[in-house]
Amino acid sequence: MSHVKAGGSSKNVHNNAGPRLGVKRYGGQTVSTGEVLVRQTGSTKVAGPGTFMSRNFTIHAAKDGVVTFQKTKVRRFTGKTAPRTQVSVQ
Asked: Of 18, 28, 50, 68, which one has the greatest count of Cβ atoms within 10 A?
């Protein structure tokens, strides 16, 4: 007779904090080098001039300046273009 060990109940496993994603510095704000501008899952916003994107898609300021946001079209691997917001520091 086949049988499986009893599995215990796990009720207290879904109590971790949220990832705190989103825009951290808005357009017109002055920033210094290395500041986090946007925390995101995937590349919903793209890094423009004066910024760089880290491994987890967080956009940082590469120099001191003022943050600006503008709409652009990014070309996908398939050749299709997709609208994205470009974050840059001037």
From this structure: 50
Q: Model confidence at 1, in pLDDT bands (50, 70, 90)?
A: low
Kindly state whether residue 4 falls inside one of the protein's structural domains. no
**Residue type for position 26:** Y
Assess if residue 8 is contained within a domain. no
* Pairwise CA distance, residues 47 & 2, whole Å: 57
Q: Which domain holds residue 41?
A: 22-89
User: What secondary structure does DSSP assign to 62-88, as a single string?
Assistant: SSSEEEEEEEEEEE-TTS-EEEEEEEE
Per the listing, tokens 């994107």 go with: 53
CATH of the domain at 54: 2.40.50.100
How far apart, in whole angstroms, are the C-alpha atoms of residue 57 and residue 6?
Answer: 42
Instruction: State the total domains in the chain.
Output: 1
pTM over 0.85: no
